[in-house]
Amino acid sequence: MYPSETAREAEVGGVGARPRPQGGFELWSWYFMRVSGVVLLFLAVFHLLWMHWVIGLSNITFDTIVERWTGPLGPFWRVYDLALLVFALTHGMNGARWVINDYVHRRGWNLTLKTALGVLYALLMLMGAYVIFTFQAPSALVTP
Amino acid sequence: MERRSVRHRRAAPSVWEGLRYRGGMGQWAWVLHRLSGLGILLFLVLHVVDIFLAAFGPEVFNKLLFLYHSWVFRPFIVLLVFGVVYHALNGLRLVIVDFWPAANAYQKPMWIGATALSLGVTAISILAFFWEG
To answer: Could you read off the pLDDT of B6-44 as tens digits, one per residue?
Structure first.
């Protein structure tokens, strides 16, 4: 599970972060979590504060989506939301993969859970991208 | 015999060992980071599905809005706000420590700052709910 006793100690007992893996996919995923984490610090926190502090949660309806995606800034918001989808979903699913690797050591269960996670990841990515790319305002709602 | 005991010692940590950690600030920072991460992912799954349903028109989408409007779900949304801001700021602390080892000496103040700021943002968000009515 861990390359060495030191690596295990660093993870289970240290104050800091997950130790940097030696190489390969895991090293790539370690860097991805940090880069996407900093990107999401801006994208996700801005999205959260925008919806809560500027728009106001109680004011959100279907029309909010129509204004956001088909208004004058529509293309900007669609790109923003696609970036948010790709970064947040990939970051979150990779985090869940790390959690599975940390706690589920039986090979069969480990692979089953990670396969289910991969299917969910692909499905949500397709659903999210589909609505971002194809959303159209119902003609009745289009403001003149 | 010797080899067996070594292998036993190097076995992966049990769930309890993982939860118990070493105690102190690092343990709380880590537990909150992991729980907030999983909680945000759970919400993200729900959120992608609800926005996907907007493709089918206002009737379908507006039926789901009780999730965001009802006071019953507000406590979960408050937890989500805290979770997102905490995960972002505590994550930033981890990135800083990873790429600038000298920052190790400032882990505690950085964590206290991240947690305090998260609580502040959460408090303002609670006030915003009452402001909107």
So the answer is: 444 455 566 665 555 556 778 889 999 999 999 999 999
Q: So where are chain B's domains?
A: 23-132
Tell me whether residue B34 is exposed, middle or buried, using C-beta atoms within 10 angstroms of its C-beta: 0 to 12, 13 to 18, 19 or more. Answer: middle
CB B99 within 8 A of CB B108: no
B18 residue type, one letter:
G
Domain A22-136 falls in which CATH fold?
A: 3 helical TM bundles of succinate and fumarate reductases (1.20.1300)
Q: Which of B88, B121, B125 sits opposite A44 (nearest CB)?
A: B88
The 10 Å Cβ neighbour count of residue A87 is: 18
Q: Do B128 and A14 touch (CB under 8 A)?
A: no
Q: Which residue of B has its CA nearest to A121?
A: B45
Which of B37, B106, B32 has its CA nearest to residue A37?
Answer: B37
How far is A45 from A72, CA to CA, in rounded Å?
23
Six-digit token pair at A88? 């947040």
User: Which ipTM value was assigned to this complex?
Assistant: 0.85
Tell if the CB–CB gap between B61 and A65 is shorter than 8 Å: yes
Q: Does A53 touch chain B (CB under 8 A)?
A: yes
Residue boundaries of the structural domains of chain A: 22-136
Taking an 8 Å cut-off on Cβ atoms, the answer to whether A96 and B34 are in contact is no
What is B23-132's CATH number, 1.20.1300, 3.40.50, 3.30.310, 1.10.287? 1.20.1300
A22 and A30 Cβ atoms separated by less than 8 Å: no
Per-residue pLDDT averaged across B44-66, rounded? 92
Q: Does the beta carbon of A60 lie under 8 angstroms from any beta carbon of chain B?
A: yes
Q: Is B24 exposed, middle or buried (0-12, 13-18, 19+ CB in 10 A)?
A: exposed
